[in-house]
Design goal:
This protein is mostly helical and 293 residues long. Helix content is 64%, strand content 4%. The strands form 2 sheets. It has a two-stranded antiparallel ribbon with strand order 1-2. Strands 3-4 form a two-stranded antiparallel sheet. It is globular.
């Protein structure tokens, strides 16, 4: 349908391809372990999808300063375009986490060990200060420090998750394993390839204006830009687990789900995010979209 220039497919090919992949991979995971993002509790996928929009929009706000990507050939109807934003951005976390779960069930990157170590509180503070610096420098000097935004949130939030005793990268490091970290990095790279591959074929797409990374491209992305996807997956993991531990999101890993994560609470949390979405969509339309059709 894409190559036949079917309008709805050419305009929304990216989100159609992504949701097809997520549902397909989720079905494989369910066959393997009798649980997945969608089953038996669809609240998990709903929560992931809504917070995926919000988390990605945080990076869209950074891009207002960085100017690293822009959108072209978007549909001119505002309501339809904003619905497309929502459905497309809602794929980010589910895509990364279902890919991670698939790799885990396939036994990829098992047995990656390191020496067990205790992580002192002062080290946690230093890590968080480093994360804060990584987020501030791109805002101060975006031309030179723009890549740092893809690592700041994991350093800022993962120590908080560790202190709370919930799943975190630092907790695994303390246990002497890097399996989760490596799988997340791999999931980010796989999803990054799929993001760029599906975006390349779409009529409505994004393009890059990234300084210093060279003119050699794979699809629309400069090749060196793919290095940002693996740490981005770590950020998504730390950000969502922080929200889940704050009872604002439904946990997606095998750890206790709060009794407060009922449908009414999950839906209400999503609804309260909508004003933020709409404000960001307006900013994207005004500053990040180069052309409509």
């Amino acid at each position: 349908m894409l190559f036949l220039d079917t309008p709805i497919v050419t305009d929304y090919f990216y989100l159609l391809a992504w949701w097809s992949y997520i549902i397909f991979a989720d079905g494989i995971v369910y066959k393997m372990e009798n649980r997945s993002l969608l089953r038996p509790d669809p609240r998990v996928l709903f929560s992931l999808g809504s917070w995926s929009v919000t988390i990605w929009l945080i990076f869209e706000l950074f891009n207002l300063r960085l100017h690293n990507w822009h959108y072209v050939n978007l549909v001119s109807n505002t309501a339809i375009r904003w619905a497309g934003y929502t459905l497309a951005y809602a794929t980010v976390l589910p895509g990364i986490f279902i890919t991670f779960t698939l790799l885990k069930n396939l036994g990829v990157f098992t047995g990656i060990r390191l020496k067990r170590r205790l992580i002192a509180d002062d080290h946690l503070t230093l890590i968080q200060l480093g994360g804060l610096l990584l987020l501030l420098l791109p805002l101060i000097l975006p031309e030179y420090f723009f890549p740092l935004v893809w690592g700041g949130f994991v350093l800022l939030l993962d120590p908080l998750n560790y202190k709370r005793g919930i799943p975190s990268l630092l907790a695994d490091i303390q246990k002497g394993t890097l399996c989760k970290t490596v799988r997340l990095l791999a999931s980010g790279l796989i999803c990054g390839f799929l993001w760029e591959f599906w975006n390349f074929w779409a009529a409505s797409k994004w393009i890059y204006t990234v300084p210093f990374v060279g003119s050699i491209k794979l699809f629309e992305m400069p090749v060196l830009g793919f290095l940002g996807f693996p740490p981005f997956a770590l950020e998504c993991y730390a950000m969502y687990n922080f929200l889940a531990s704050s009872r604002l999101a439904v946990p997606w890993e095998q750890w206790p789900v709060s009794n407060e994560s009922r449908w009414a609470r999950v839906v209400l949390t999503a609804v309260l995010q909508i004003p933020f979405w709409f404000a960001c969509y307006w900013l994207i339309d005004k500053y990040s979209v180069l052309s409509f059709k």
